[in-house]
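Cross-check.
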Amino acid sequence: MRILIATAGSRGDVAPYTGLGTALRRAGHEVALAATGSFAPLAAAAGLEFRPLPADPRAHGSVRNSRELLRAASAFVTDLGEGFADAVLQGGGTDLMLLSATTAPLGRHVTEATGVPGLGVYLQPTHPTGDFPPTVTGTRSLGRIGNRTAGHLAQHMTDRVFTPAAKRLRERLELPPLPAAHMRRHRRRHDWPVLHGFSTALLPRPRDWPPHLRVTGSWWPHVDAEHRLPARLDDFLAAGPPPVLIGFGSMAAGEGERLSGIAVRALRRAGLRGVLQSGSAGLAAEGDDVLTIGDVPHALLFPRLAAVAHHAGAGTAAAALRAGIPSVTVPVAADQPFWAKRLAAIGAAPAPIPFSGLTAERLAAALAAATSDPSYARAAGAAARHMAVEDGAAAVVTAVRRLPA
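Predicted model, tokenized:
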């Protein structure tokens, strides 16, 4: 079967699908990854065909809060809609489209126009539930009815963001006008299947979800079996006790100098060695007790750390749990406060530090707690054992095999 995986966003929105793609390829399928152009090397490293999507999330500035997130999302979706059909349909036939939460609102129109079936493969829970509030609207529960109501409102907000791009896409595909809410109701009536790539160790499947919404366990970025950590990093890790990693992923662009100073002061105040991951913020510092690195596979680095201080993106949160190490979370925007609260709720992290309130003193106190209180490591270890028996990619391979011919 010729399968196209379409996703868009930051590295954390793309990398997990490389592991999913390699699992499908090993099962005998031809797999292409459609994503924004900067991620072509990730696809190539995983042995996947690559098709560029016409957008770049970095083109719309840094994101520090929910207001900036909504502005950037609207501009990004407008770019994404331009040429989306060309990107996903190039290269001949496709038998199945696997659509992320960021591409499904556009991909559904392509599936309607072409007759190619689609399957949702989401990294976050987006369907309304009474169990928790929407992942992008805050962390305070509103009660079961309030949470579900907020979930429906969040879906309407998503519809509004995608409506202009979807309207132009339908015109290009020569489809009649269709309001986004009507498309959503159609999918709901026909039980459009969505598989969710997060672990029930971190977030149990909502009790009120319908059967066509499944949680498979996490999908992990592809890491080549021959891949090794850079020698400089390997030497630093071996030269003393396990250090702490501090990084903000694709967040906080342009704040590297301030955040680097906070990180180094916090590490020395807590008496810890540290590794700074430069990321979009551009963290940088050097010394006998601190080292700066670029992108390295979490699967190789995290098991050798004492803890990870991070922005609580879904992928980083899951990777820390998989390694069985505590987290210190500094959520910035989007779904990050949600995952940060979940890590604290299962006991694998202290209470989150809001990005707007980050200081060296608060970070040092949280790092000291995470590395000295054994309860955090015990909770992370329990989650790691739970995750070890999940095989999210295999569950997707099975679901694809069971689709009607």
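The domain at 231-388 is CATH 3.40.50.2000 (Rossmann fold). The first strand starts at residue 2 and ends at 6. Passed to J.P. for a second look.
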